[in-house]
Amino acid sequence: MDDREYMSVALDHAKLGAGKVNPNPMVGAVIVRDGQIIAVGHHDHFGGWHAERSALEAAKRDGVDVRGATIYVTLEPCCHQGKQPPCSQALIDAGLARVVVGSADPNPLVAGKGIRQLRGAGIDVTEGVLRDECDALNEIFMHYIVSHQPFVLLKYAMTLDGKIATRTGASRWITGEAARHRVHEDRGRFAAIMVGVGTVLADDPQLTCRLDDREDGGHNPVRIVCDSRLRTPLDSALVRTAHDVPTIIATCVPWNEPAAKPYADAGCEVLTIDADDAGHVDLAALAATLGARGIDSVIIEGGASLAWAVLHAGIVTKVDAYIAPKIFGGTAAPTPVGGEGVETPAGCLRLTDMTVTTLGDDLLVEGFVDKTGRTAVKQESVEGGATDVHGNR
Fold first, then answer.
1. What is the pLDDT of residues 239-279, one digit of tens each?
2. Cα–Cα distance measured from residue 386 to residue 200, given in angstroms and rounded to the nearest whole number
3. What pTM did the predictor assign?
4. Cβ proximity of 324 and 161 under 8 Å
5. Shortest CA distance to 388 belongs to which of 191, 169, 160?
6. Residues near 122 by Cβ (< 8 Å), separated by ≥ 6?
7. Residue 358 C-alpha from the chain's centroid
8. Which residues are within 8 A (CB) of 240 and not within 5 positions of it... i.e. 6 or more apart?
C-alpha cells in the first residue's frame, strides 16, 4: 500500500464520526510501520479524543510501540488546548517519525501551526495526500470554522420535467430507494433540518434519520420549523415527538406569549426571531443565531416557498437536486422553487463546482451557490405548503 491507500483507510475511519462530532471535523488516523497498519482511530464524538490520540490509545491498549512509525491523519493535527490537549505534542511525545496529512486546517488557531510544530521537532511531514477527498469530507467544518455561519444545503427532488408532486399534490415516491437512502445519510451527518410551516401542515413529517444499515438508525438532526405566526398543529408529529428529538419553532411571536406556552410544554423550543420586511422570520438572522449556538449545518427540505426564500436571503451554501426519470406534467403541478422568481436570466442564481452522481435510476446534481454578482429580488413568504420532494417522512 502507498500513502494514498493508507489515507483512504483513514478517511473510512473518519466517516464513523458522522453526525456525532459537530461542530468539530470528522477525522481519521492510521498508524503504520513496515507496511503494516498497527493502530487506527477516529474522532468519535464532540469532546472526545481526537483521531490521533484515539489511534495512540489503541496502540497502547494493544501493547504496540509506535516510536519511529508513520501516522496518516485526514486533517492537520491541532496544536492548541481545547476540550482535548494538542495532538501535535502528543505525536511528538509518542516518537513518531513521519506524519502524513490530508487537509490543511483552516481554523485560525491551527492553520499551519501544527505542521510547523511537528517539523520543528524533527518529524518528517507530508502534506496534501488525498486533499480533495479530505476537504470534501469536512466541507461543513471548512465553511463553519471560517464564516461562523451554518453550511446550508438546499435539497429537493424532481421529475425530469421539474415537478416535485403531481397536480393533486401526491409525491411519494419521486425518487427510488438509493436516493432516499442518501437523503437519510445526509440527515445523519447534518446538525439540523429545516422546513416551513406549510410543509408541516401539508405533510405532517417526522424529519428523522432512519438508516436500516445502522444499529442506532442514525443521528437525528435538530428539527426547525419556520413558523412566523405559530400555526404548527400541536398534534403534529414534530410536536408530539419533541421530547424525543430536539425541535425548534422559529417564530416572530415572543417566546413568553401565551400562544407559545403549549409548544414549550410539549418539549419544543420557541425561538423568537425578528421579522423581515414582509413580516416573516428573518432567515439571515435565524442562520446567524443557529451558527452562534454551534449548529454548523442545516438541510432545507421543504417546501417551494422556503426554498425561494433561503436562496434570496443568501444563506444557501450548496444545492442537491435529485432528478428522477419520470414526467408528471400539469401546469398546476408544483416545482421545487416557488416565490416570485427572477425577472431576467441575468438575475439568476448560479451554481459552481458541479458534480453528477447516479443513484439507482436517479441522478443527483450537486453544486455550490455562486454568491458573487447576485441580483437581489423580492423575497416571498417562507411558509408555502408545497409537498416535500421525498415525501418528508
1. 999 999 999 999 999 999 999 999 999 999 999 999 999 89
2. 10
3. 0.86
4. no
5. 169
6. none
7. 21
8. 266
